[in-house]
Amino acid sequence: MKKILSFNSKIKHVSVDYLKTIALFNKNARILLLNIFLMGIGMSVFSLLFNLYLLRMGYGEDQIGIYQMSIGASVAILSIPSGYIIDRFGFKKPMITASVIIVLAVICQASFFPIAAIIFFTFIYGGCTSLLMVADNPFMMENSTNNERTHLFSISFALMMITGFFGGLLGGYLPGLIVKILKLSSDDYLSYRYSLYVSILFVVASLIPFFFIEEKKRDNPSYRGLLDRFRISKINNKRLFAKLLIPNVLIGFGAGLIVPFINVYLENQVGASTSVIGLIFSLTSALTGLASFGVPLLTKRFGKINTVVLTQLFSLPFLIGITLSGFLPMVAFFVLARSVLMNLSTPAISNFSMESVGPDEKSLFSGFSGVAWNGTWAISNIAAGFIMARISYLIPYYICAALYFLASTLYFIFFRKSEKREAVELILDEEHKL
């Protein structure tokens, strides 16, 4: 009984601590969270349905791989220029402009039939998405303090996952509803196209909060000064950059082999319907979102790097498990567990990276990180599409598991000592205050 009371007391204490910390978020941080909520619902529906939409238009896995590649390639190519734009013009105007172009691009993606046109507009969408991705972490750093920063990173990630829950449910339900309303065939691509249009309404709504951002006054550097800052030779600690980016490259390549194709795998290999796939995606997002609220507790108990390493390694048996059964409930469980554990590392490594690089290097590192992740993601998308269409659906999962294991090992080797030094410095600082 005492243990139960003690546990309840701890839960209550953690909840109060979370609420107090959330109250510290400033206006800009809350605006970003609202944008993440609305964009998350819209794009989770869009990403769930678009591969299935392409299948119903007669395209194969290899062509879907090319489509997925175009997203990663555009993000990779424009990540570093996006960092330049953010440093030159601030956050507000670039984020609004990118959001407007994203809306137009996804409308065109859902409206045009030729794969070349789809890929063209996908490239535009990916390029503008890269700007929002590059801006997010520096924006959160600028609009938070050490007191609430880890919570802000964790809650922003949790929101992405939780909106994925609602988006997954909505995306799984929409095509069937539209089939009934318009009396279409269940395999008619038009039911998916109209569902994509519904998802775009949320994307439109997501850009509105950006108009209320209060841009901080800053000295906009000259073009020459910015170009000088973005030279690799100006990075203060190139070795640190390399250590942070190498595992990111490996994880990006591994993720690109399986993540964009999970819905295709579930439909073609396990026989899941669109509504069931939507349910699996929504539960995955919800559980990941709820679990991510515990990331500050994990990082406080084990440290950021140990949290990253442990969650990634524990996800590997479930990743392999996906390939070992054709029984839908079991496969769904493995997909859920793998996603939750692997994604728990994201806010921890994002926070660690932003704290590790210099103040003037955050946008630059964010850009390089986008190149590292999305460049390898793009390459592996094509490879996975080719392998699945011509050889086997299972091989990409085994390669992914090997890459994740290597990346986790490198994180531990590279940073276990640096995090220990940070803990010692923090203790000494606290003793000095006393």
How would you characterize this protein structure?
- With 434 residues, this protein is mainly α.
- It has a single domain (26-211, 236-433), classed as Growth Hormone, Chain: A (Up-down Bundle).
- The chain is built from 17 helices and no strands.
- The chain starts with a helix and ends with a helix.
Order of SSEs: HHHHHHHHHHHHHHHHH
Number of strands: 0
**Shape, per Cα inertia axes:** globular
SS-derived structural category? mainly alpha
Poorly predicted runs of 5 or more residues: 222-226, 423-434
Helix content: over 70%
Distance between the termini: 38 Å
CATH homology group: MFS general substrate transporter like domains
CATH topology: Growth Hormone, Chain: A
What is the total domain count? 1
CATH architecture: Up-down Bundle
Overall residue-averaged pLDDT value? 82
